[in-house]
Amino acid sequence: MLFRMSLNRLFWLISILLMLLFLVLIGRIVSSEWAVYERSTKSMPAIRNLQLALLAEEKLAAERGPGNSLLLQEPDAAAKEFAGLDQARFASDRALASLRRALQMQAVPQLAPVIAHVASTEQALATMRKEMDLLLALPVRQRDVAAVDAVLQMMARADSGFAPAIVALADVAVRSDPQLSDGLEGALLASSLRNIAGRIGAVFTAPVIAHRPLTSQEIYAFSRLSGEISQLYSGIELQLRPYQDNPVLKAALDAVRDRYLGAGLGFLNELFAIGRSSGDYGLSAREMVVRYVPRMAAIPHLRDLVLAEMLQQARRQNRQAAFFLVAATVLGAVALAIFVLLMQVIRLRVLRPILDATDLFVSLADERFNTVIPMPRHDDEIGVMMRVIHVLKAHSLAKVRLEKQREEMIAQLQTLSDTDFLTGLLNRRAFFAQGEQQFGIAQRYRRQLTLILMDVDHFKTVNDRYGHQAGDQVLRVVADLCRRHHRKVDLLARYGGEEFLLMLPEIDLSQGFAAAEKLRCAIDSCDCQLDGGEIVNVTASFGVVAFECDNDLESLIGRADQALYQAKHSGRNMVVAAPRGKSDETIIFA
Ligand SMILES: Nc1nc2c(ncn2[C@@H]2O[C@H](COP(=O)(O)OP(=O)(O)OP(=O)(O)O)[C@@H](O)[C@H]2O)c(=O)[nH]1
């Protein structure tokens, strides 16, 4: 079916199919670029959310230090530490509020559970603080151990209750851009390391304040937490391996190793050694905090740098995705435009000229030469084809003209070969050709047919007296008279010299006789004026014969000749009808 289809239809079918294919491909490319762009657009706020959440977590953990410490001290003993607690509470409130506001502003349904977590953390924090403040107002000995424990539990719950919010936000961030997962995992591990670092430091708060050795529970907690710290550090190193070429991150990781794992943890190891023996630490809780806490700063610094790097990477990817999206859309549109242009060029410069050329060839083959052949507009193969069609048209026109001329010439020759040059009547040969036909019809269908043989009387005398040319003139006049007296269906010929033959189909002898008589009278009464002005009067004799049972035309003419002979013999200027059958009786009219 495809092979039988017209070129025009095939062209449109292929064009539409290619166009659809093209649109699908472009749509696919643009939509996948759009997906990348959309994902990268979402990953930036997701990282910022995680940043704020990790900061809030850090601040929450930081609130535990002064809280734990004050629970072991008299209400009036440490005014500076109360100020530190207020500052820590203010910082964690501010961090939680910033996170909540940021989450609420994004108005993403997916973040609703996280907002709920933040709100419940804020609530739990407020309750815990109220309980703690009641205890801190009492002297140490009046503080109920169970109540202190309950506050410590509430602090831990407020902290751990916030963890699901971080997990959920980390999940959203990783899902928005899986390429960032290593860095984000590294930041999360750094955040956990910061928590553990705080908790391992807190192990020494009570023993340092009480100047006592570590309990076995504290020794166990220290050992477990130090193991977790080295595991977390290895984890961070592993996750940040893809960024080992980044000098800033590398320096921050080295700082964690040197300042915290080296100096910070080294300081705690010293306290641990003392705590396992004498419990004589030689420093206050405040001094311990001042010496230990600044060394932890390298950890959140690393976390923040990693998150900043992730954010920058997400921004870069977003810009790149936007560029690719615009480029894919523009290139797709340009490619589509080029495709449409190409099809248009093929249609206008190849297909249409071929179809036009086909029509032109058909019209040339049909000899319809009035079809206008357009002039070639381009100097290409189609232009050559158009020029060739022009040449073919010229050749065809010339050929047709020649054929016409040839046919006209053949017709002229035919006429000439049938015509007597002097009188313009049929000649003897043409008379026989056409007369045989009429004779055959009469013979076959038993139809009437009459033959008149006429001879100008004493024509030799005309020639002799006026000259041969005058004789010719007379013969032309006689021929004209014969022409005027014969019907269209009759055959009129110059039989030879001054003899004329008339064949009258469907005419019987008496009608033929009458016609001959009429012609005889016309000749007899005609004054034939010669070029020299002389008037010549001629007469003619007629032999009339009707077809009966003649075998051929010659015998019919023979009988007419006999009648003519008789007319001549009887005195000329008369009509003699040949007798019917075998009768010798003739009709003579003069
Ligand atoms: N001018 C001219 N003369 C012709 C032509 N053909 C024949 N003739 C002449 O016609 C004459 C015929 O003469 P004849 O046969 O003797 O007959 P006639 O003089 O007509 O006498 P009858 O027939 O007996 O009446 C001859 O002199 C021919 O030369 C022709 O085409 N032109």
TrEMBL record:
Signal sequence, renumbered to the chain: none
Keywords, ordered alphabetically: Coiled coil, Membrane, Transmembrane, Transmembrane helix
Domain of life of the organism encoding this protein: Bacteria
Record bears the keyword Acetylation: no
Matching Pfam families: GGDEF
One Gene Ontology MF term: diguanylate cyclase activity
Gene Ontology biological-process entries: cell adhesion involved in single-species biofilm formation; negative regulation of bacterial-type flagellum-dependent cell motility
Ranges in coiled-coil conformation: 392-419
Matching PANTHER family: DIGUANYLATE CYCLASE DGCM-RELATED, REGULATORY COMPONENTS OF SENSORY TRANSDUCTION SYSTEM
NCBIfam families given in the database record: GGDEF (TIGR00254)
Protein name, per record: diguanylate cyclase
Species lineage: Bacteria, Pseudomonadati, Pseudomonadota, Betaproteobacteria, Burkholderiales
